[in-house]
Amino acid sequence: MEKIDPAWITENFISLIGREWMLVTAGDASRFNTMTASWGGVGYLWNKPVVFVFVRPERYTFEFIERCDCFTLSFLCEEYREAYKVCGSRSGRDTDKVKEAGLVPFVTPLGNVTFEQSRLTLECRKLYTGITAEERFIDKSIYRKWYGGSQGGDHRLYVAEIVDSWIK
């Protein structure tokens, strides 16, 4: 992987996150978990390049992201679509979904985990967190659609600085 300044990434993150998906991974080489996500974004905030992601408390990855200062976002090539499906439909509590998905962990110099199959990796340090709450929604229909049923609990939002980025 080649280290790159995040300002030079030319990817369309709306398409990348919303259509192609990403893996959110937290922990270290000895113990980590990853999950597929399709909600989030990339931008510039507080004079820093940042990402924002949403994780529900029910997800096993939530425990890791809460405990750790950093996490990675890994973007795979289309040929790994099945890996996204595995990591989004199975829990790391019950199975070694990384092995099942055919992914090979790669530990960054900062000690965070991404995957050899990642064509783009963003290594991120948490700056802010908050919880989506019904009373904070201006458009109440969004809350009813995404949180009013059996989809799960309210998401925790994480805003994190991109401290390192790599391309393949």
TrEMBL record:
Residues 19-167 form the Flavin reductase like domain. InterPro entries: Flavin_Rdtase-like_dom (IPR002563), Flavoredoxin (IPR052174), Split_barrel_FMN-bd (IPR012349). Belongs to the flavoredoxin family. This is Flavin reductase family protein. The lineage of its organism: Bacteria, Pseudomonadati, Bacteroidota, Bacteroidia, Bacteroidales.
